[in-house]
Amino acid sequence: MIKAVIFDLDGTLVQTEIIKAHSYAKAVATLSENKITESDVVQNFKNYVGLSRSEIAKNLVKDYWYHLHHLSNDFSEVEDKLLENRLEIYNSMLEDPNILPKYCCKMTMQFLHTVFEDSYLTGLATMSHCMQVERVLKIMNIKNQFKFVITRDEIENAKPHPEIYLRMKIKLGVEPDECVVIEDSTTGIKAALSANMNVFAVTNSITRDSVHSSRLLDNKFIIDNPAELKNKVYEYIRNKN
């Protein structure tokens, strides 16, 4: 019996992945003295959706080292510069109260409200850090929709490691097969599957190709049209229960 629905945040409830992609792109372009275009970084960012902040920075510095090593011969120092610049840009973008509502995943958000009203246990398991998560939840006014929230700050191992979902299972007091996870990226899907949970992927423009090509999920668990999310998940719950 399904008792809990656990949501990812970035790219699932709010298209913060798009905002993050542009914040990294602006930072890389600036640090490379515009030798690297923002559009190139945004395209490349698709390969790293769902990874932790430090892992994304490490990969981007490696990818663009030729145009970034003038900053320092120390790889870690360049990585820190990228993180510092990118975080400043990202926080500045989040301070604009009009940005987040514009990137709201409306159908997934409606689904969250539905399962909350139907008394399912709800959790948020995100690789974003607590400060950014608190800001997003406050602006979107959805913090009270979750029984528990777990952020990157509370775990040792980032997705695709299952730690965050295993911790959420314990907090919610349920078994893995009693959970439905709503994710958007291959990294998140792998984490939830490794925790032996039921997973639906709601894809977006950044994650769609990678989710399908990964073959991690049967097509019936991949939602390319968010308007189908509620009916497909509830049909699955009825059949399972």
CATH superfamily of the largest domain: HAD superfamily/HAD-like
How far do the termini sit from each other? 5 Å
Roughly what fraction of the amino acids lie in strands? Answer: 5-15%
Distinct helical segment count: 12
Q: List the secondary-structure elements in sequence, H or E.
A: EHHHHHHHEHEHEHEHEH
CATH fold naming of the largest domain: Rossmann fold
Architecture (CATH level 2) name of the largest domain: 3-Layer(aba) Sandwich
Mean pLDDT: 94
Q: Helices and strands: which structural class? A: alpha/beta
Low-confidence stretches: none
Task: Specify Rg, calculated over alpha carbons.
Answer: 18 Å
Kindly state the percentage of residues in helix. 40-55%
Strand order of the largest sheet: 3-2-1-4-5-6
What is the number of independent domains?
2
Q: Sheet with the most strands?
A: 6 strands, parallel
Number of strands: 6
Shape: elongated
CATH class category name of the largest domain: Alpha Beta
Q: How does this model look, in words?
A:
This protein is α/β, with parallel strands linked by helices and 241 residues long. The protein has 2 domains: 154 residues, HAD superfamily/HAD-like (Rossmann fold, 3-Layer(aba) Sandwich); 78 residues. The protein is built from 12 helices and 6 strands.
